[in-house]
Design goal:
alpha+beta, five-stranded mixed beta sheet, single chain, three-stranded mixed beta sheet, 16 strands
Length: about 350
């Protein structure tokens, strides 16, 4: 569906629910441990996807990667829909960083959510991220990866898609923040991924659960769309206006992070891959990321974890083959590939919206 057909419903009841003081203490402890391990962190408000009009994630409380989940699907293709409604509440970085991890704590929360509400995700942060499949005029899709940041050539931290950093904090019980300041930090992408971002509550004046009212739905809908184009600016250096056509392609549930919801968008570019690479090289994005492409037709190539994937790079304004190890490609992009292979009717170069 086109982004104009994405509807938003806001409600305080869509916020992450609190189980008990005991489990909130465990979340606080896990958050402090994370801060001690990775350095100071600031908890900022995030939008939480409580539900949507599309089919949801697995309803089995034991749905865990590598454990008992036998789900064959992890993405829902948006098709034959006149519109999609996203039911959004609030969560924060602290809750998201803890509840998206596969752990004894998150397993307990899933079990209690299932027993009390038949919804394993009830007590998870379920913060949403967006991913952009930006199809160039000549049929290529750009992918980015964080530049190495230390001498041994490795990324210092794992992927962090909770991209806001701020001196404000969201109280998990009241849902309040102390300020609306939001300084977005670049997303860290250790593996090749689609440009990625996330809508920020503070940019549309959603500061507490009291702001989750109908008069703010239009602003939030706009911010969800803006976050897609912002990811293109931050990671590719392009300044495509958010008035350009875009469409929601699929809703993905990240099994390695407790079915955390991810929104996959598709956009058509008037640029060729070479022109896009030229813009990238002149932008600040080149200081943080490296750029590669995959041909849309190569998405149909069967994915084998033990083989290399046919990537391309632009060198001296010429496209050259640059195969990469499948292990160096992010899980969400792999799911995107599998989705296009399962639904043979999906042709990104001919998509109309």
């Amino acid at each position: 569906v086109r982004t104009s057909a994405i509807k938003v419903a806001l409600s305080a009841s869509y916020c992450r629910q609190i189980v008990s003081s005991y489990y909130e203490t465990l979340i606080d402890t896990a958050w402090r441990d994370l801060c001690e391990t990775e350095g100071p962190q600031f908890s900022t408000p995030l939008f939480r996807l409580h539900d949507c009009s599309l089919p949801g994630s697995c309803s089995d409380f034991q749905c865990r990667a590598g454990l008992t989940c036998s789900c064959s699907e992890d993405s829902v293709l948006v098709e034959a829909c006149n519109e999609v409604e996203l039911r959004l509440g609030l969560s924060n970085t602290r809750e998201s960083s803890v509840t998206r991890q596969l752990s004894v704590l998150s397993s307990d929360l899933a079990y209690i959510g299932y027993e009390l509400h038949k919804k394993p995700q009830m007590f998870f942060a379920n913060s949403i991220d967006v991913h952009a499949a930006f199809v160039t005029k000549d049929g290529y899709i750009p992918l980015v990866r964080s530049l190495t940041t230390n001498r041994n050539g490795s990324i210092e931290k794992q992927a962090s898609l909770d991209r806001t950093r701020s001196t404000s904090s969201l109280n998990s019980k009241s849902g309040s923040v102390s300020s609306k300041t939001s300084l977005r930090a670049p997303a860290i992408l250790p593996k090749w991924s689609l440009p990625t971002g996330g809508p920020e509550p503070s940019t549309c004046n959603i500061l507490t659960y009291k702001d989750l009212v109908s008069r703010n739905t239009q602003g939030v809908q706009k911010e969800v769309v803006e976050s897609v184009f912002r990811s293109l600016h931050d990671m590719l250096g392009i300044k495509t206006p958010s008035s350009e056509p875009a469409a929601l392609l699929a809703l993905h549930f990240d099994k390695k992070h407790n079915n955390k919801p991810e929104l996959l968008f598709i956009l058509k570019s008037g640029l060729t891959s070479i022109e896009l690479a030229d813009i990238f090289r002149k932008s600040k994005a080149k200081n943080l990321y490296e750029l590669a492409f995959i041909r849309s037709q190569d998405l149909k190539t069967p994915l084998n974890e033990n083989e290399k994937m046919p990537f391309c790079q632009v060198v001296e304004r010429k496209i050259s083959q640059a195969h990469v190890e499948a292990q160096s490609v992010g899980d969400i992009f792999k799911s995107f590939i599998k989705l296009t292979q399962k639904h043979s009717s999906v042709d990104l170069t001919k998509a109309k919206f």
